[in-house]
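Severity: low
Component: inverse-folding endpoint
Summary: output formatting inconsistent between runs
Steps to reproduce: submit the following structure tokens with default settings.
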């Protein structure tokens, strides 16, 4: 069965912990998901349906700018969450 997926979600999830480990921000599950959501809203979606589409998106990871864009989006989102936490 086919399913539509946004490859950017996987890429951000894979980089999240490494990017925020040295940022003074809450690292609870709620805050991490808030950071991911904000970061994903700043990044272009990379949807795919087929295995070939997934491979194409993984090739784009080889571009340095791909990583830079994700790190910048996660970092900016982390500072927003740090200044506006949404948990008790």
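Observed output (run 2 of 3):
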């Amino acid at each position: 069965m086919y399913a539509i997926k946004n490859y950017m979600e996987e890429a951000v999830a894979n980089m999240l912990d490494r990017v925020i480990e040295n940022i003074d921000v809450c690292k609870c599950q709620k805050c991490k998901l808030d950071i991911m959501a904000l970061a994903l809203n700043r990044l272009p979606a990379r949807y795919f349906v087929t295995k070939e589409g997934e491979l194409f998106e993984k090739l784009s990871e080889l571009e340095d700018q791909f990583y830079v864009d994700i790190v910048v989006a996660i970092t900016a989102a982390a500072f927003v969450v740090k200044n506006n936490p949404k948990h008790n």
